Amino acid sequence: GWASEGLGSSGKNRRVCHAAARLEMGSLWEEFNRLGTEMIVTKAGRDTGEDGTTEMLGVRGRILAVLSPLPCRYAFHSSSWLAAGRADPAAPGRVHFHPDSPAKGAQWMRQIVSFDKLKLTNNLLDDNGHIILNSMHRYQPRFHVVFVDPRRDSERFAHQNFKSFSFPETQFMAVTAYQNHRITQLKIASNPFAKGFRDGDPEP
Amino acid sequence: GWASEGLGSSGKNRRVCHAAARLEMGSLWEEFNRLGTEMIVTKAGRDTGEDGTTEMLGVRGRILAVLSPLPCRYAFHSSSWLAAGRADPAAPGRVHFHPDSPAKGAQWMRQIVSFDKLKLTNNLLDDNGHIILNSMHRYQPRFHVVFVDPRRDSERFAHQNFKSFSFPETQFMAVTAYQNHRITQLKIASNPFAKGFRDGDPEP
DNA sequence: CCCTTTTCACCTAGGTGGTAAGAT
DNA sequence: ATCTTACCACCTAGGTGAAAAGGG
Fold it and tell me: What CATH number is given to the structural domain containing A127?
């Protein structure tokens, strides 16, 4: 009934307003962010390795990720990124639904919510559902916890039924090839699939 | 409302009574069945490669698979299977929910419904959710299309809300090692992961 | 003797950055 | 000159039956 769909003090539905989230692998994200994170975009789509942990209970809902563009074009000169004019026109942003969606809150709590199936592409005509980005532009990942409202006129309450999270340390630059060699080295050191490019002695 | 949940002539909810299904790779299943299909069970769990196609429209529901034991123990002697006494006592049968469940009918129709994540084990203490079988016993795979009834007292109508399918050509014997060498050869010829054991010239 | 378990080489499938060639 | 693409060797991850060892 209507009474049970009351709003919390934030103007959000009570089912989502207490949702919380923390970033998994936060120290690694910070290490990348200090150097200026770069993410490869290809025509076919490449992974991102995004992780997050939700602390949501009792919500029957969806979790989805979006990448919000930051409004500037960049260039990499003498080891640093510089703003280089207005952002190129962006295609309408795509949304990536977590593959476990929809699921109940207890299910989301059971394990880390990983966005490792999310792929980035620079192909404006992509029809694989990947998220389309402009290379040499900067993005802020965000994700939304959405309560699936069973009411028939649920569109009217859409603004109450989600709660959003973003972690500044996950901002990144979309590139087709790495610009900063220190980013390349950190990727090689931290991604198991790049183990073939490591040369030093591995730690236990 | 209640009127819209009326029953078809079969005594099943109208949402499932028109569901239909056909077996994918039917001719390969028949080829195996003529020889006597065998499926490996291990302690850790092994795949089955079950495929099926549903023809279900407009149903918000689940698809799940069960393996029904046939009540006999078998032995393999001189190239054929013989009944060999009563069936060993079986643990309560487990159910395998298709990982896309729940989903709407249109989603199920979009692609082949494959049970290739279903694994078989002979470990009675298995806690990976695999289906537990007795080796040297025969089984009939079945699957059920289930309408998720939104009514509060939906348990009362459970018997109306599913429709079951089984294909006799998918019956198989659970084994820990292949008994019939012709089954081994047909597995090697038809399973891409066993390509390493093929010796003849491959067909284009 | 019959059946089960363990380990193995050999595959499929797909995620890495490197590299050189291509595009603008 | 700068950015993009296509292909590659090298990984991770995991599905095969073979073979040998183990158990009752």
Answer: 2.60.40.820
